[in-house]
Design brief:
This protein is an alpha+beta fold. It has a single domain, classed as Thiol Ester Dehydrase, Chain A. The protein is 17% helix and 34% strand. The protein contains 2 helices and 5 strands. A 5-stranded antiparallel β-sheet has the order 1-3-4-5-2. A hairpin with a 3-residue loop joins strand 3 and strand 4. The chain starts with 28 loop residues before the first strand and ends in a 9-residue tail after the last helix. This is Thioesterase.
Length: 160
């Protein structure tokens, strides 16, 4: 017998397990963004497309505001992004975006992020960006100075 959708457990009331960066304290940096009415859909919760905008705000804060994590003459291009939707975001309110660097490659940087509302993880994400030289539009390896700054924003492997 197939369960009706109304028989499914309410994921919103079930706490999400703590591993894999699903606790706000797992992240070395956090920012808070206000949820706007225009972020919502007809069901009254934040549209899933807007989760990507919140995650981008967290990456931008870490890359360009908190630290200047790029070499001169370079910019970042996103190579991959995944989002696991674990719950809903609601308006009115705020979302806390946790961001940390999970891995540093030769010219790429992998992030782990989480979105939180009222202390509950509603989404987790991984993404990779590549540092690109603006003139050549080719990947450019990180300088040692940039790598040193990146270490300050690394996620502790024991936590995530």
């Amino acid at each position: 017998m197939t369960a009706a959708i109304n028989d499914w457990p309410d994921r919103g009331s079930t706490p999400v397990p703590a591993p894999l960066g699903r606790r706000v304290e797992d992240y070395p940096t956090t920012i808070t963004e206000k949820i706007r009415l225009s972020d919502t859909d007809r069901q009254g919760h934040v549209n899933n497309v807007n989760f990507a905008f919140f995650l981008e705000a967290g990456r931008s804060d870490l890359l360009h505001e908190r630290f200047e994590l790029r070499d001169e003459g370079c910019q970042y291009m996103i190579a991959t992004a995944t989002i696991d939707f674990l719950g809903e975001l609601h308006w009115p309110g705020e979302v806390v975006i946790g961001t940390g660097i999970e891995r540093v490659g030769k010219s790429s940087l992998s992030f782990r992020q989480g979105l939180f509302q009222h202390g509950r993880c509603v989404a987790s994400s991984t993404s990779t960006v590549v540092q690109v030289n603006i003139a050549s539009m080719r990947a450019q390896p990180f300088s040692e100075g940039t790598r040193a700054l990146m270490r300050q924003a690394m996620i502790d492997a024991g936590d995530a």
